[in-house]
Amino acid sequence: MQARYPSADPLTLLPDVDPRRIPRHIAIIMDGNGRWAKQRGFPRIFGHRNGARALRETVEEAGRLGVEAVTFYSFSLENWRRPPEEVQALMLLCVAYCEGEREALLRDNVRFRWIGRREGLPAEVIEALDSVVAATARCTGPTLCVAVNYGGRAEIADAAKAIATAVAEGRLQPSQIGEDTIASRLYAPDLPDPDLLIRSAGERRISNFLLWQISYAEIHVTDVLWPDFDASCLHAAIRDFAARSRRFGGLDESDSAGGFTGA
Ligand code: FPP
Q1: Closest C-alpha residue for ligand 1 atom 6
Q2: Which position among 13, 90, 121, 190 has the lowest Cβ density within 10 Å, counted as fewest Cβ atoms?
Q3: Rounded CA separation 55/204 (Å)
Q4: Is residue 5 part of a domain?
Q5: Residue 103: CB partners within 8 Å, gap ≥ 6?
Q6: Which tens digit of pLDDT belongs to each residue from 21-50?
Q7: pTM of the entire structure?
Q8: What CATH number did the domain enclosing 138 receive?
Q9: Domain count, the chain
């Protein structure tokens, strides 16, 4: 099988996994930064900083494996309820990440995206995010998407608002509304739905992440705290995913005449 990207080498890195079973899009809930820092006697932001390092390493490995896109839950709408100093530190970390990673993303041919509500985010955070999106827009390698000021219900509500506006303006008939009408108005409609959702730090919750898009995603939960998540953890998640039988509400792969046709 031909690698999706020139640098992708799944057969060498994960020889026990059929390259056709590498997920196209992985969504990640990065949990456990606070606990990781606390275990070491440091403030929570120390955990977030190390979480940003784990994010970088995960994207690099995902790219080498031929994964097309990875979306990270970086700051949820609910995260505004955290102490102001932690919120402030996370916003600064987001800006620092964008400024610090820009050259490396360009060098590695990574296309940067972000999803979430603009309203409510500080202008300098929006500028930093938008600027890396623009700088890497022509990159043809893996997509790194960060969800910032993001909520899954809010995303669906925003799509509903856009549809209602189109109906009110006579550009759309209610009878024309289907699943595609909603899917095409989500924040990143061009990305494929995640095949695999990874959550670190052991909790078994979706936490309002990509609610529409993960309808058929396989879920992998690891007890590893996010800053400790490394290439071997990603390999374990992909191995787990590759061993699953994806039914999409239909027959088991082994029962269907066509067999497995890819994730
Ligand atoms: C959850 O851990 C993690 C977060 C709320 C923030 C994750 C953000 C980063 C890793 C920074 C990267 C950001 C960008 C935009 C690149 P937690 O604090 O809830 O951990 P706990 O459950 O142990 O308290």
Answers
A1: 74
A2: 190
A3: 20
A4: no
A5: none
A6: 999 999 999 999 999 999 999 999 999 999
A7: 0.93
A8: 3.40.1180.10
A9: 1
